[in-house]
């Protein structure tokens, strides 16, 4: 499962990635990059509980962590929360994540104007992602500005996906360049 212990670990939480346009395109933009390991939490073989020891090794070696998911009901799909409860709760109290960047990459069905005060969803994506930011800060991680591909349910979806895929690739390159070999604890 360790995928040769890469510098950037992407935790993909998408229950139907093969049918996805947006998240699949984002993954495709970075999956061939050296030093990137992508773990789709929904495709891990037969796990009823996450192996904290195995994940500790993976995350300790990494220099950055990425949560990638479609914005379901103003949050991530449930398996990312389960990973946080079972693995991140433990890691947050160790040097494994301290000082490492945490980047959230997400996609929305609505256009960006829907995510503002007075908009259809009444809150900005930054406001809705506060629990992830708070968790990162609590664990001593460095919160990164989220990458949000808006409007996947609109006529602009293709253009937005292409722009965000390029931005994602650039951000991952920067995270690879910033990192060291990870913590050896």
TrEMBL record:
The keyword Oxidoreductase applies. One of its GO terms (molecular function) is NAD(P)H dehydrogenase (quinone) activity. It comes from the Bacteria. Keywords: Oxidoreductase. Residues 6-171 form the Flavodoxin-like fold domain. InterPro entries: Flavodoxin_fold, Flavoprotein-like_sf, KefG/KefF. It holds the Pfam family Flavodoxin_2. This is NAD(P)H-dependent oxidoreductase. It comes from Jilunia laotingensis. The lineage of its organism: Bacteria, Pseudomonadati, Bacteroidota, Bacteroidia, Bacteroidales.
């Amino acid at each position: 499962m360790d995928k040769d212990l890469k510098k950037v670990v992407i935790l993909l939480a998408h229950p139907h990635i093969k049918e996805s346009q947006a998240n699949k395109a984002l993954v495709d933009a970075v999956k061939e990059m050296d030093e990137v390991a992508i773990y789709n939490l929904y495709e891990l073989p037969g796990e009823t509980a996450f192996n904290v020891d195995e994940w500790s090794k993976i995350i300790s070696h990494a220099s950055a962590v990425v949560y990638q998911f479609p914005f379901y009901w103003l949050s991530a799909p449930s398996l990312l929360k389960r990973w946080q409860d079972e693995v991140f709760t433990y890691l947050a109290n160790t040097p494994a994540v301290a000082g490492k960047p945490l980047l959230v990459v997400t996609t929305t069905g609505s256009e960006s104007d829907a995510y503002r005060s007075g908009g259809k969803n009444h809150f900005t994506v930054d406001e809705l992602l506060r629990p992830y930011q708070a968790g990162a800060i609590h664990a001593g991680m460095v919160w990164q500005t989220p990458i949000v591909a808006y409007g996947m349910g609109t006529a602009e979806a293709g253009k937005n996906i292409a722009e965000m895929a390029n931005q994602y690739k650039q951000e991952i390159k920067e995270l690879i360049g910033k990192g060291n070999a990870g913590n050896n604890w």
